[in-house]
Amino acid sequence: MIVTFAGHGDVQIGEELKNKIVSAIKDNAKDQLFFYCGGYGAFDNACSRIAKELSNENPNIKLIFVTPYVDDKRLADTSLRGLYDEVIYPDLEKIPRRFAILKRNEYMVDMADLVIAYVNFKQGGAYKTLMYAKRKGKKIINLGDVHL
Q1: Using an 8 Å Cβ cutoff, are 142 and 119 in contact?
Q2: Which DSSP helix (H) or strand (E) runs through 114?
Q3: 91-97 LR contacts (CB < 8 Å, sep 24+)
Q4: Fold of the domain spanning 2-142
Q5: What gap in Å lies between CA 12 and CA 128, rounded to an integer?
Q6: What angle do CA 57, 51, 138 make, to 5 degrees?
Q7: CA-CA distance, 89 to 95, in Å (whole number)?
Q8: pLDDT tens digits, 5-17
C-alpha cells in the first residue's frame, strides 16, 4: 500500500493533529506500507517524521522522498538520508521548473492508494493536490476543514 500526504506548508502540528495522522495511518494500514513524501513544508515534514517513527516499530514500512528537481540541493542533506529509505525522481525533465512541484504531487497521488491531507483553504498547492486526488478517485482522509 502506498500512502502520500498533502497539506499546507505553514500548518502548526500539535499533539492532537499528530495523533489524528497516526490514527489515519494505522486505521488504513496494510502489511507493507510505502510512504511517498514530498518533504516541503510543515505538514509534509511532520508526516515524514511520523512515518519514520512508525517505521522504527515496523520493518515493513519504507519512506520514499519524491523530489521534484533532479538538482535538488536537499538531496545532499545528511538528515534527509537518515530519514528516507529511497529517493525517486519522476520523469519531470520536460516540465517547466515552476510546475515541477505540482506535477510531482500529481505523480505521488497517481501512485497512492491513500492520500492523507490537511487542507483548510480552497486555494494553493495542497488544495490543488487534494482536488486532483478526488478527480482520480483516490481514498482521501482530509484532517482539515475543506469538505469533499
Answers
A1: yes
A2: strand 114-118
A3: 92/68, 97/69
A4: Rossmann fold (3.40.50)
A5: 20
A6: 125
A7: 13
A8: 999 888 888 999 9
Q: What is the distance of C-alpha 12 from the center of its chain?
A: 16
Residue 73 amino acid letter: K
Between residues 29 and 122, which one has the greater pLDDT? 122
Residue 110 confidence (pLDDT) above 70: yes
By the 10 Å C-beta count (0-12 exposed, 13-18 middle, 19+ buried), 95 is classed as middle
Contact 140, 117 (CB under 8 A): yes
Q: Under a CB-based contact definition with an 8 Å cutoff, are residues 31 and 52 in contact?
A: no
C-alpha 97, offset from chain centre = 20
Residue 78 scores a pLDDT above 70? no
In this prediction, residue 135 carries a pLDDT of: 98
Give the list of residues 6+ apart from residue 67 with CB closer than 8 angstroms, or none: 39, 74, 75, 87, 88, 89, 104
Name the residue with cell 482530509.
142
Which cell is 80 given?
Answer: 534527509
Give the model confidence (pLDDT) of 15-72 as tens digits.
999 999 999 999 987 779 999 999 888 999 899 999 999 999 888 999 999 999 887 7
